[in-house]
Write a structure and sequence with these properties.
homodimer; 338 residues; alpha/beta; 2 domains
């Protein structure tokens, strides 16, 4: 049982789902504090049967908090995480600010729970596009050792927060009514379009979002020899990221063997019957906590390759659900109090 | 100069652009006949300064026609092509019915003009998703020999014809207004969704659209050793297909060398400056005849790999423009009359 939990960024797209998940998964706690930026301070939010007033996000807010689950922009996370740690508050951080820091464990509980042992107070949750991919890769890696991954993403507007979802809807309305629209959240019109850039230019022609998929995957598997070749694309989908994944393994995996690996893995659901037009669709996976896999087939271009299609709710398993699952796993690992 | 050209399927999404292209590219002819199914017979269509009445598509219509440019469903193409050939009419066929037939040349004029020599009267234009890819691959193949291609597509509604474009718009309206919508053209709701199936289940878990990319690419390059690993996905874009392409070459190509290859190739335009957020976007490439390339970068997962993003108007270079370019090339190759 946690004595006192804080949810930071409680009014954001992910923050709201973190609160839902704490309630619906019955994460045990005595006290819950909701923190957010000045703009949202004073707002009232219902969690289960109780109403909470959003408190200001200041360093002192972390006094007497056991665990903070934080979903904020990177720049906020940069200052708040040290302030929380300094006050002996364990932090689960959703931002991209700390994931590759040596002091942070980077954890997807189904994939690398061992990284929670001897953590130093800071556990980062991976980027949404990485999380669903590493869940999909894990059973294949255990069975046949993953050597190389080629991934193209089809990412939803909600990955850019509530503002992203709103802009997609407003932009779509404008295009249908043949009205002018100036995008603010996305760098170009997203409605009826595909934007091959998520994040800024990071290195060697790759974006920050793409390099997250490279580095975070290697850190989670603890294996820098796993090579990842990513292209991240924003498409006009409201919620749920989709990915085409080609994985090359050391040992050849048949389609049947791969399907069995997926089906037996916790947190994965296989929907795969092309003749019946059955495969995961973003509009059907939204609001669900699993990683969905379909279109499993042998790669035609390489001996040990396997192609599949992977969809997951980027706000849930890609963010909120994974954070709350980390909180659950931490409780088993190092009971803060009981 | 052609004595007499027929455009078959003149009222369809591609047919209309074929007529535009014949006019704007000034394909030389003396007589033009517009043919279409019974439903469209009698319709009047303006081409340049002249009005044409759509004639019924019957076998006798091909008497005294030099060249028929045909854009029809596969089942129509199956019977009409032999009827036209039998009447000594050269056929440029957009459908998927004849492309892999040994009697058909499969041609993209910039890529394999040599296939037009000694053709047997039937020239097929490749599938839209193949055409833009082989244009992009050709200069790389010439420079460094393409061995393997991994491609994920982001395909537009217009690939399913006028009905596809209409359904995307109606479906989008319905979703925004929270109304029920039953898709008819697409197998699932396309608005705010991504459908990882185009065409029917063909073989080994791949769809017919995907296998077209495999077989047509090999036929166009005359090289069955080129291995293609495709995933075809329909996304809610009105027009223009996008593709993420990872190409592995025999000899290593630097990014600079690849960019130069692309820039010097006819029919390709490079838009590639990530820092300035410049790359091809489907909503900006619509209505243009070129194949657009951006996001050119070295693959991080393999020594001789190159990643890029490729966008083209599937109704133009992917269909109508390529057909009219074949007609132009044929005229140089084997002047039907002069």
């Amino acid at each position: 049982m946690y004595e006192s939990i804080a949810v930071v960024g409680a009014t954001g797209a992910v923050g709201r789902i973190i609160l839902d998940q704490i309630e619906s998964r019955k994460l045990p706690f005595r006290k819950l504090t909701l923190l957010a930026s000045a703009r949202s301070t004073g707002k009232k939010i219902q969690v289960g049967s109780q109403e909470y007033t959003v408190q200001p996000l200041v360093p002192e807010a972390f006094e007497d908090i056991d665990l903070a689950i934080c979903s904020t922009p990177d720049d906020i996370a940069k200052w708040l995480v040290p302030e929380a740690l300094k006050r002996n508050c364990t932090v689960i951080d959703e931002s991209g600010a700390w994931r590759m820091d040596d002091r942070a464990a980077l954890v997807v509980p189904e994939v690398n729970p061992e990284a929670l042992k001897n953590h130093q107070g800071l556990i980062a949750s991976p980027n949404c596009s990485t999380t669903q991919m590493v869940v999909a890769l894990k059973p294949l890696h255990d069975a046949a050792r993953v050597k190389r991954v080629i991934v193209s993403t089809y990412q939803a507007a909600s990955g850019a927060g509530l503002g992203g979802s709103r802009e997609l809807e407003e932009c779509t309305q404008a295009v249908l009514q043949k009205k002018e629209f100036t995008p603010e959240v996305f760098s170009h019109q997203l409605a009826f379009n595909a934007i091959p850039q998520i994040g800024s230019h990071k290195e060697q022609g790759y974006t920050s979002e793409e390099m997250k998929m490279v580095y975070e995957t290697q850190k989670i598997f603890g294996d820098k020899s796993i090579r990842v070749s990513p292209t991240c694309v924003r498409i006009p989908v409201t919620n749920c990221h989709s990915e085409t994944i080609l994985v090359e393994t050391e040992r050849k995996l048949s389609v049947e063997e791969a399907r069995k690996c997926f089906e037996e893995f916790p947190g994965i659901r296989v929907i795969d019957d092309l003749d019946q037009k059955l495969y995961p669709l973003p509009n059907e996976c939204t609001g669900q906590d699993e990683v969905f896999i379909g279109r499993i087939r042998e790669d035609l271009s390489c001996g040990n390759g396997l192609n599949f299609w992977c969809v997951s709710d980027n706000l849930r398993k890609g963010a909120a659900t994974n954070a709350v699952q980390i909180a659950e796993a931490l409780l088993k690992e190092t009971p803060v109090s009981s």
